[in-house]
Amino acid sequence: MKFFVDTADVAAIRELNDLGMVDGVTTNPSLILKSGRDILEVTREICDIVEGPVSAEVVASDAEGMIREGKHLVTIAPNITVKVPLTWDGLKACKALSSDGHKVNVTLCFSPAQAILAAKAGATFVSPFIGRVDDINLDGMELIAQIREIYDNYDFETEILAASIRSVNHITEAARIGADVITAPPAVIKGMVKHVLTDRGLEQFEADWAKTGQKIV
Ligand code: G3P
């Protein structure tokens, strides 16, 4: 499973990247807003840090505008993936950009039917949003499972990029189902290390070690 970080926070990306935890980065207009940075400048900085794909999202709503913006975004760095929304125009832009050899991430996917269209349009990645499906009392993980089943039925090469990840359990479950990639906020990725028994065990070892009066170095 590949780990993408869902943020435009350069310091957080750098920290995880130094640990070898970053296979790519995803950004979106909301994350750019949160960063308070200029999209082109911050995306360039992220691409300098991370070797893998860095998704940068178009904001036009028509295919022509998306293609124009996508062609500009790919000039930032060779590892840019153009992110387009799962609309009819987004699919047209996906087809055009992927036919030109660019990587495309089709985002805002909320149904298996939409995911089929993304694969047919040549998407490199499709991004089903787990958390936002859960938000409306449907099952985000079931969406991942259905897309996995369909893509496997037909050997579609589009990678399932599980997005809108809000918890460690989301990551574990997406991994069990076989999502190719997860993209999660840095805090959720760092939260994966936590376990109460690890903390309790360490406390015990420290207390016992202190009683030995020994030192390793
Ligand atoms: O990758 C998409 C993600 O940023 C959306 O997450 O938590 O805003 O639904 P969320």
From TrEMBL:
Q: Where in the cell is it found?
A: Cytoplasm
Q: Name one GO biological process term.
A: pentose-phosphate shunt
Q: Per the record, what are the reactions this protein catalyses?
A: D-sedoheptulose 7-phosphate + D-glyceraldehyde 3-phosphate = D-erythrose 4-phosphate + beta-D-fructose 6-phosphate
Pathway note: Carbohydrate degradation; pentose phosphate pathway; D-glyceraldehyde 3-phosphate and beta-D-fructose 6-phosphate from D-ribose 5-phosphate and D-xylulose 5-phosphate (non-oxidative stage): step 2/3
Q: Which InterPro entries match?
A: Aldolase_TIM, TAL/FSA, Transaldolase_3B, Transaldolase_3B/F6P_aldolase, Transaldolase_AS, TSA/FSA_arc/bac
The cross-references to CDD domains, in alphabetical order and at most eight, read:
Transaldolase_FSA (cd00956)
Instruction: Tell me which PROSITE patterns the record gives.
Output: TRANSALDOLASE_1 (PS01054), TRANSALDOLASE_2 (PS00958)
Of the GO CC terms on this record, one is: cytoplasm
Q: Which UniProt keywords apply?
A: Cytoplasm, Pentose shunt, Schiff base, Transferase
Q: Name one Pfam family in it.
A: TAL_FSA
Instruction: Give the Gene Ontology MF terms in alphabetical order.
Output: aldehyde-lyase activity; transaldolase activity
Which residues are catalytic?
83 (schiff-base intermediate with substrate)
User: Its domain of life?
Assistant: Bacteria
Q: What does this protein do?
A: Transaldolase is important for the balance of metabolites in the pentose-phosphate pathway.
Q: Which family does it belong to?
A: Belongs to the transaldolase family. Type 3B subfamily.
Q: What is this protein called?
A: Probable transaldolase
- Which organism does this record belong to? Paracoccus halophilus
- Recite the lineage of the species: Bacteria, Pseudomonadati, Pseudomonadota, Alphaproteobacteria, Rhodobacterales
